[in-house]
Amino acid sequence: MGxxxxxxxxxxxxxxxxxxxxPLFSGALSEQILYSIPEEMARGSVVGNLAEDLGLHVQDLLxxxxxxxxxxQYFTIDKETGNLLVSDRIDRESLCSQNPLCVLxxxxxxxxxxxxxxxxxxxxxxxxxxxxxxxxxxxxQINEFVIPGTQFGLESAIDADVxxxxxxxxxxxxSEHFSLIVKDKTxxxxxxxxxxxxxxxxxxxxxxxxxxxxxxxxxxxxxxTTQIRIKVTDANDNPPVFSQxxxxxxxxxxxxxxxxxxxxxxxxxxxxxxAEITYSFKTLRDIGNKFxxxxxxxxxxxxxxxxxEISSSYTMSIEAEDGGGMAxxxxxxxxxxxxxxxxxxxxxxxxxxxxxxxxxxxxxxALFKTYDQDSGENGEVTCLIEEKVPFRIVPSSNxxxxxxxxxxxxxxxxxxxxxxxxxxxxxxPPLSSSRSVTLHIGDINDNAPVFHQASYVVHVAENNPPGxxxxxVSASDPxxxxxxxxxxxxxxxxxxxxxxxxxxxxxxxxxxVFAQRAFDHEQxxxxxxxxxxxxxxxPALSANASLRVLVGDRNDNAPRVLYPxxxxxxxxxxxxxxxxxxx
Length: 583
Ligand SMILES: *[C@@H]1O[C@H](CO)[C@@H](O)[C@H](O)[C@H]1NC(C)=O
Ligand SMILES: *[C@@H]1O[C@H](CO)[C@@H](O)[C@H](O)[C@H]1NC(C)=O
Hints:
- InterPro entries: Cadherin-like_dom, Cadherin-like_sf, Cadherin_CS, Cadherin_N, Protocadherin/Cadherin-CA.
- Helices cover about 10% and strands about 40% of the residues.
- The chain contains 6 helices and 41 strands.
- The radius of gyration is 72 Å and the shape is rod-shaped.
- One 2-acetamido-2-deoxy-beta-D-glucopyranose binds near residues 491, 530, 532 and 544.
- One 2-acetamido-2-deoxy-beta-D-glucopyranose binds near residues 416, 418 and 438.
């Protein structure tokens, strides 16, 4: 460039000087000499015969001593022939670069007389330079989301030659995805641009290799190529995909916290951050309390002991999200497998407060329920009564059972029962527990009073004091309370009904029989009473017993024989003896 600028400015100076010097020189130099040679001529090549063209005679040449005044000697003059010869390499491109008109001005100095001739040597371009790309390899990153029609500028190739030898056109290797246009031709830049013709899909083809050829217009044509590698960058057009939409897992209950439950896996066909997946729980607040999720690996571990009885299954959703924000979800169904870790329980829900001894067989006397939180066989419960008692279990619905009477009850014989019910499940091994209930049997007035003797005989000595107790009867009744509370009365006698109360009375409570008057053997020797013992049940039950009263004689009269003597032991005053014992 500096070279050219120098040449040019030198040319202008000479042009200014020329009219000034001209009158000094011969008038033969009216037109300027212009030679035209191709660049890169061999040293010694003849440009032209300067002597002849300047109108000098060959025989004068030695005296005129022609020489070239220039800083850089591209040329020399053959002093014998006057030929202008190439003496150095002449590269048009380094002399004139892209200037299509490359002219080297020369000052030819002649002596005797001193004279200066200006001549020009035009250097013509030859196609000695191929086009040349600044880079042999071009890498373009194009996102697969880019729409067809989008253009991508490429660096122009450079051809040092000019005119037809310069860069003329480009050619792109075949690609269904790309075409080439050349823009800004007016500015001489010949800038090629790639045009996307068809959408790219990284997952289908992640890179494309194109070859761009630049061609000049020389003969022969010289070319140059560059490789264009298109790296299709990911558009995160693929969401993560789980290996399964639904994962079903069975898990034993009571596993220690930290047990690995499952590992979900999602993959993403994208690349880089767009394929980086993080996992997270998508559902339910309590899931996070029960399970831990490794956000990187997708592994799920238990956090708390898993209790089947709290929940027999868990459903959760897990989201996989890639770094580009696309997400997918999968569902996890965790079935918890029951273990026999719960003992069955018996709970009495109601116990009859009034089980009476007259209860019919089959009467319901208690209701109870069994509970076993386990499921399946672990929760299947059977019940039995431990004791030998007149009760049996009748299953009802929903683990409810009835305890019913299974035979006659007799309070007087067994007033209470302890009934123990044992519930056993069918787990392996089985678990069981028992519960006891005390059943009190209510009384029924099912026993009449019973006199201790069916009949009584008493001997009473006459002249007894009035109010004296002359006998006592007693009856017992095994029933309870009023049902067993006996009261006594006289219900019949062989005395005159009106006279009865003036002769005897009985204490209702004690059964003591009192004489109401002094008996007189002479008037009344014997009488019989029917005593009744009656309980206070409702209805009341009663029993009769007879009491025979024999009034004994005392020597209270002057002897007079009116009646035969009664017996050898007639002297007994207050003596009761059973009738059977009487002779
Ligand atoms: C029933 O059980 C209670 C308490 O265990 C005991 O005191 C009572 O004597 C038992 N009754 C019978 C009839 O076994
Ligand atoms: C008891 O005696 C009375 C009076 O003779 C009679 O009416 C009643 O039926 C007797 N009771 C029984 C249980 O024999």
